[in-house]
Amino acid sequence: MVPIQMVDLKRQYAKIKPQVDAAILDVLESTAFINGGPVQSFAQELQQYLGVKHVIPCANGTDALQIALMALGLQPGDEIITPSFTFIATAEVIAMLQLKPVFVDVNPQTFCLDVAQVEKAITSRTKAIVPVHLYGHSTDMEPLMAIAAQHGIYVIEDNAQAIGGTYTYKDGTVKKNGAMGHIGCTSFFPSKNLGCYGDGGAIFTNDDALANQLKMVANHGQSARYYHDVVGCNSRLDTVQAAILRIKLPLLDEYIKARRAVADAYDAGFAGIPQITTPYRAPYSYHVFHQYTLQLNGIDRNALQQYLQEKQVPAMIYYPVPAHQQKMFANFGGAAFHLPNTDALTTKVISLPIHTEMDRDQLDHIIASVKSFIK
Ligand SMILES: *Cc1c(COP(=O)(O)O)cnc(C)c1O
Hints:
The chain is of the alpha/beta class. The protein has helices at residues 9-30, 37-50, 61-70, 89-96, 141-151, 208-218, 239-248, 252-269, 301-310, 340-348, 360-374, and strands at 54-58, 79-83, 100-104, 126-129, 154-158, 166-168, 174-176, 183-187, 201-205, 222-224, 227-228, 276-277, 285-286, 292-296, 349-352. Helix content is 37%, strand content 15%. The strands form 4 sheets. A 7-stranded mixed β-sheet has the order 1-9-8-5-4-2-3, with helices on both faces. A 3-stranded antiparallel β-sheet has the order 7-6-13, with no helix packed on it. Strand 10 (222-224) and strand 11 (227-228) form a beta hairpin. The protein is globular.
């Protein structure tokens, strides 16, 4: 059996190596390392794929979130609603910009922001909501957008884990994750569903004025060459990375299918085991399984992880400490937030290997290993 990895980038690369190598060589020969042709081509192709009006490539997913918030012209102390059960970047950029993260609990089934709890967290200083489509499952965007519209606040989707996934509205309309809020953000970190071979990110919007502002912020606040209207930053997608992403974007739907097949196999393998809750799939969400995350009921998680490691099965805890409990937010009153679902999930979740190259014998071994620990 091929050794099992959380994400097998090597075997994925092997299948596209000739195209990727040629694309990288083209960039080297062009020497257009910054904002070369592939950057704009990729932005256009992603725009079409997502069904959005503007895609602004940038250096990574954290920058995408930061630039999105900077483009809104907020004041220090303005409040941003976000889940605590997420990768730290989501909340970190809020604090870095001297805005106030207001943590709202997640739905224990979807792992995403509990939209029913958002309204009571809104104050006169609330300026934006940053939902996270965690593990590849969509946040319930239709009611969330309705609440935001009612209060005149922005929605910035953190779509780093759910690119290619879709959300279905009550009237049957289907939209891609990241294309529903005022701004969408993603990351092309190598292990993400659409990963490049280094750092990369992008910001999406359907709003022309916001697009201009986002482009300006990402490029030193520049409105015309050497005229700088606002304080911005320098955040660009590398030409080499864009060239690689142009090869991988047409494969994204296939990659998602491969991930969903792994999830289906796990679901079948773990069906009817009371100590294990397999991931929920809300009817509105086409889940893209960035992670396959179990909730353990009355099982010693550390012991399971240790046992799996002995069987050469990697498993990870995403995330062992939620944002509001991190030292980073001690001065923001982090620990004062009462988030029982988040705190409970933090102790119960474990993510199993999931990627585009998983074999049946690897899957059988993982499922059998988990089961043999429980029985
Ligand atoms: C990966 C990730 C980010 C950050 O992306 P980087 O490209 O690593 O900066 C932000 N939010 C979430 C939910 C992520 O998973």
